[in-house]
Amino acid sequence: MPAEYTLTKEAHAPLPGIAVRAGNYVYCSGSVGMTKDGQMVEGTDRTRQILGNLEEVLKGSGMTLGNVVKANVYLSKLSQDFDTFNEVWKEAMPEPKPARTCIGVAELPAGGTDVEIEFVAYDG
């Protein structure tokens, strides 16, 4: 079965949200806390915006946050921002929580963001 690509313009600008379905798995490209009109959200709302963006990408593939089985989180200030990020994560992600890796990085490429998240979802 060939891979199926999904683009949604409901996620952040300047690029559409991208997902690739391979069998029962959907791989979502990393998302940042940008609105559809290209504005970077500030503070803890940035993580909420990212999760909302990824939720829209998943919808385009017929899935929800409940289908997420793995998340990679990139934080440019890991020791400083992890606790705040984690509080939003605990509130927003449904149970059971997916497996997650949090990675400290020197910088992220999108418009001054300090957090980026990518998902793998399963529909089995």
TrEMBL record:
GO molecular function, one term: deaminase activity
One GO cellular component term: cytosol
Gene3D superfamilies noted in UniProt: RutC-like
Taxonomy, superkingdom: Eukaryota
InterPro entries documented for this protein: RutC-like_sf (IPR035959), YjgF/YER057c/UK114 (IPR006175)
PANTHER family, per the entry: 2-IMINOBUTANOATE/2-IMINOPROPANOATE DEAMINASE RIDA, MMF1
Family listed: Belongs to the RutC family.
Protein name: Uncharacterized protein
